[in-house]
Structures are given as structure tokens and as C-alpha cells.
Amino acid sequence: MLQKFKKMDVPTLMIIFMLMIISVMCLYSATHGDPKLEGHHIKMLAFYVLGFGAVFAITLFDYRLLVKYALYIYFFGLLILLAANFFGGNINNASGWIKLGPISIQPAELFKLILVIFLASVLIKRGKAKLEFWRDVVPIGLMTFVPFAFVMLQNDLGNAMAYVVILIGLLWIGNIKASHALIGFVVIAVLVGGGIKLYTVYHDNIYDYLDKLGRTHWVERLDPWLVPEKATAKASWHTDNAKLAIGSGGITGKGFMQGTSVQSGRVPYTYSDSIFVLIAEEFGFVGSSVVLLLYFILIHRMILIALESKERSGPYIIVGVVAMYLYQVFENIGAFIGIMPLTGITLPFISYGGTSLLINMASIGLIMSIKVHGQEVDDDILAPGTNGPNKKRIFGRKQAKA
């Protein structure tokens, strides 16, 4: 056990520890004096303690077992998402929350990691062969579309789009054909460009339709991004004040707990979705750059672990986790500087949220497990019912005939 802990990537753990300090400080600044929110920084610290416990526990666990039973885990995840659709509570317009006594969990967050493991398990079966469109790409796309549809029904666009980004990242490393990648890029560009054009031209009709469905909050999130001239004052309030707060931070910021916009309440949810706005106003360009640098180093360490792994499923999992983190960082920060729509996605390891943090920490634990067990290509896990000299290897590079 001690030998496995010695193999853990210390720089990665140090980065997570620094992000924890930033998170607790920012949460204290965002919630002090508010009787409804005061103490959130202590709760976040408790979540981090649980998270580090999960990291060390998962490090000891051989991640290849998860890959082996990925299909069962996938269907289990779908059942939880389906249960959230029927029995989930509503928090901030998202209905996919399951309450377990005093705590609430968001299955859509959990399924991001499940999807990474499942897609990795599917792709490693193809080996180094190019992915065929109908045999590989289409089925994998459909398997991603099912949870995507479930989460969209929960009004959670942010997490639903994370599934698409994970799919794209894993298809890319999964050796998709260049022609298929080009066609996919063109199709996505046409759909996005055409969708934006249709939205701007038929804005009023779309609003009326969504109003009948009771989902006008989608319009309130898209209008400030696509058609700011038609956005209501309510819809623009969040992003407009966020931009002013970020700009007012300047180079070094206004100082800890001195941000006039975030401390006055003009920017909502500074303890969760909008926490980057607090960082930018109180710590300025320097503080924002430090946060981005920490993310960059974290991603770099993950890629190094992927390159060092001798077992094939490890790099697939790491690429999926990297895609998930990159999307969350880009979407969260981009929404507040005007280059992305506001979707309510959290900033990894910094925004308040127990489910989000624990899933992110579990992902780090999974990567530590790859670091520890990814070199053990000769220590294969056997298929059920196989043993002896003719054993069938599940995770090795070779398979002996039974």
C-alpha cells in the first residue's frame, strides 16, 4: 500500500491543494455576512477532506476493474439519470437533483465520469484500427446522445454539453478517420452557425414557443450572448455586472473582500457559478492568471501521466477527464467575458458544490490509479472463470488462447 502511495503524482496533489486554498478563501469572501450562506467555506473544506479521502482510496483501487464492468456502470448511471428526471428536485431551474436527507446530489455530474470510463472501454476494443463510421462512430454517438437527452430534459445545458465535448475528445484520440473528423467539424459548424442565424431571425417565435414550454430562462441565457439588443434588463443583469466587475479589477485587483460589485450583491452566485468574477475583481489580472496557470499545469501533468501509461485504457480515460475539465473552465470563464452563453457550469475545484467537487476529486483519484497501476501490464486481471496457464488476459496486450 505504501509503495502505491509513493507512486502518486505529487505535483498534481499540490495543485489541488492550492486550488483548495483559493476556493476556501474566495468562498469566505463571497459568503461572509450572509446568514443564508455563511459557513459555506467550512462546508467546502469538509468536502475537500472527503475528496482527498476519495483520491487516496481510488488510487489503491485498480481502475481496470471499472473498465471491465463499464457497460454495467453505464446502465446504472442511466437509471440514476432517469430517476432524477422523474423524482428530482429543482435547484436554479435545473430539475435533476436527488435529495438524500439533508444533502442533494446531481446525477448529471456523476455521469460525466461514468461516460468517460464507458467510452474508454468501448474504444480500447478497437485497438489501433481506424474507427469505422457506421460500426463505431454512430453507435458511440447514440450511446452519448441518450444521457445527453435525459440531462437536457432536466434543463441542464451545461452538463449536457460536457457529454458532447467528452465524446469529441475520445473520438479524436480513438483514431477517428481524418475525413470523418472533417465532416463532423463541418456539420457542427453548419449546425451552430445555422442555429445562431435561425435564433436571431426567428427570435420572437422561438421565445413564444419556449414560453409555452415554460423554459424562457433558456432565452434569458442566450439573448445577452447572441442578441444583446433584445435581451431584457433581467437577462443581461448577471453578465453585464460580471463584465464590469472583471474590468474593474485591473491588474492587481481591489483586494481580498474589497470587490465592490461582488460584495454588494450586484453579481449573483459569486460562491458558485460566478466565483471567477470574484477572483478577477478582488485579485485582478494577476490572480486570474494564477488560477489559469494552475489549471494549465494540472492538465499538463495529466497528459504526462497518459504518455507514461503502458496500459491502453488509461490514456483514453485521462483524455476524457482533460476534455471535461477544459470544457468546464472555458465555458465558466467564457460566459462572464462574453464569448460563451451562460449555462450555470461550475469552475472546477473552486466553485461551491459538493457533488461537483467530489466527482472532480474522484477523477483525480482515477488518474492517480492510472499512474500507479498503468505500468502493470503483466499483472493482468483475469476474466471470470479463467485461471491457470491458459488464462485469458483482459487488460494485457496479448491474449492466450483458451
UniProtKB/TrEMBL annotation:
Bilayer-spanning residue ranges: 12-30, 42-63, 70-91, 103-124, 133-151, 157-174, 181-202, 283-304, 316-339, 345-367
Bilayer topology: Multi-pass membrane protein
Subcellular location: Membrane
Residues making up the signal peptide according to the UniProt record: none
Broad class of where this protein is predominantly found: membrane
Name of this protein: FtsW/RodA/SpoVE family cell cycle protein
GO molecular function, one term: glycosyltransferase activity
Record key words, sorted: Cell shape, Glycosyltransferase, Membrane, Transferase, Transmembrane, Transmembrane helix
Keyword Ribosomal protein among record annotations: no
